[in-house]
Amino acid sequence: MSLPYTLLITPLPADAPDDGSWFTETFTEVEASEPALRVSELSTQRGDGVFETLSVVNGHAQEVQPHLARLARSAEICDLPAPNLAQWSAAISQAVARIPSQGELAIKLVLSRGVEHGPSPTAWLHASAASDFSPVRQSGVRAITLDRGYDRGVAERAPWLLLGAKTLSYAVNMAALREAHRRGADDTIFVTSDGYVMEGPTSSVIIRHGDVFSTPAPSGAILHGTTQRSLFNYLERHGHAVSYRDISIEELRTADAVWLVSSVRLAVAVIELDGVQMPVDAPLTELFTEYLLSPRD
Ligand code: PLP
User: Fold this and answer.
1) Helix (H/G/I), strand (E/B), else coil: 193
2) Looking at residues 173-196, what average pLDDT do you find?
3) Mean of pLDDT values over 268-293
4) For a pocket test of ligand 1, which of 51, 55, 169, 262 has the largest count of ligand atoms closer than 8 A to its C-beta?
5) Mean pLDDT computed over every residue of the chain
6) 170 shares a domain with 107
7) Phi and psi angles of residue 36, each rounded to the nearest 5 degrees, phi first
8) What terms describe the molecular function in GO for this protein (predicted)?
9) How far is the CA of 262 from the centre of ligand 1 (A)?
């Protein structure tokens, strides 16, 4: 079957019996040219839903369980019914069996609040060719820092901002990328109004000082990235020190290397920050890419 590949999913309760055999009855394959969603769908009307994007490399879906765990966490934060993870896992397996087994593809999982006044959530899976990140994996990116408008304590003070959930409301994130382009850069690193590093609009930030790798603590104000976690496990296995902590803008500027990491982009070096050249660790970037392209569960 060719790309894109779409499955509409009738979401089952989290505690539905898990014998697996009947999950396929809850999936409907949809032709790319066919209408699939209603106009009153709240995901499109209000961005009211959650999603995950995972990478499929040469037929292997990467880090399925961490992505599903985050989908469940996002659903919980947004008061959506808990997803049946065995059902989602079966949907991913069905998609992987139907899509090309070579190259880098992306699978997006969406769980929306459903149609307005409707009885249940809407869910679907969409597989497509991944954007080609190989040029920036080689060249790196120029990033700017942008004030996210919140201080470090925002997540505890205002949980209704849903900052720790991967919601469908990405208009702000996309605006931050356009602002980077307007300023002649490629990407953005959000910082808190009190001067601490958060994340990129579609990535986590990892910095290296000497042999210590750090990332902002997942305080609830940022997404806890599956790629960052996977890289920290890899680094720890290879004897490096890793730390979750508050990182000031000054520490970002004086880092020995900075990466933006995410599931489909993998690891991309920041070569310039706010117009100032940054040191680049090319061998480690290459090693990260190699590791992230290897089959990971
Ligand atoms: N932070 C944000 C806001 C993101 O949108 C993403 C991914 O799209 C990430 C972090 C990185 O998450 P992951 O590594 O799980 O793809």
Assistant:
1) coil
2) 98
3) 98
4) 262
5) 96
6) no
7) -130, -25
8) lyase activity
9) 5
- Of ligand 1's listed atoms, the one at least distance from the Cα of 67 is 15
Same-domain pairing of 152 and 57: no
pLDDT digits (tens, 9 = 90+) for 225-275: 999 999 999 999 999 999 999 999 999 999 999 999 999 999 999 999 999
Do 190 and 51 lie in a common domain?
no
Residue 283 in this model has a pLDDT that exceeds 90 = yes
Which residues, 6 or more positions from 241, have their beta carbon under 8 angstroms from its beta carbon? 211, 212, 213
Centre of ligand 1 from the C-alpha of residue 119, in Å: 30
- Do 139 and 279 lie in one domain? The reply is yes
Peptide bond into 4 cis (omega under 30): yes
Read off the DSSP letter of residue 24.
Answer: G
Instruction: Report the CATH number at residue 194.
Output: 3.20.10.10
In this structure, the answer to whether residues 182 and 97 fall within a common structural domain is: no
Tally of structural domains, the chain: 2
* 160 and 286 belong to one structural domain: yes
What's the gap in Å between 107 CA and the centre of ligand 1? Answer: 14
Q: Which tokens in the block code for residue 149? A: 């408008």
List pocket residues of ligand 1, CB cut-off 6 Å.
Answer: 53, 199, 201-204, 223, 225-228, 261-263
pLDDT score recorded for residue 20: 67
pLDDT digits (tens, 9 = 90+) for 137-181: 999 999 999 999 999 999 999 999 999 999 999 999 999 999 999
Determine the Cα–Cα distance for residues 96 and 135; give it in Å rounded to an integer.
Answer: 26
DSSP secondary structure, 195-208, as one string: SBB--BTTBEEEEE
Ligand 1: centre distance to CA 202 (Å): 5
Looking at 90, 114, 129, which one is the last position of a domain? Answer: 129
Nearest atom within ligand 1 for CA of residue 54: 16
Q: What is the Å distance from ligand 1's center to 121 Cα?
A: 23
Residue 220 has pLDDT above 90, yes or no: no
Whether residue 264 sits in one domain with residue 190: yes
Nearest CA residue ID for atom 12, ligand 1 = 225
> What does the longest C-alpha to C-alpha distance in the chain come to?
56
Give the residue whose CA is nearest to atom 10 of ligand 1: 203
Please state the pTM of the whole predicted model. Answer: 0.97
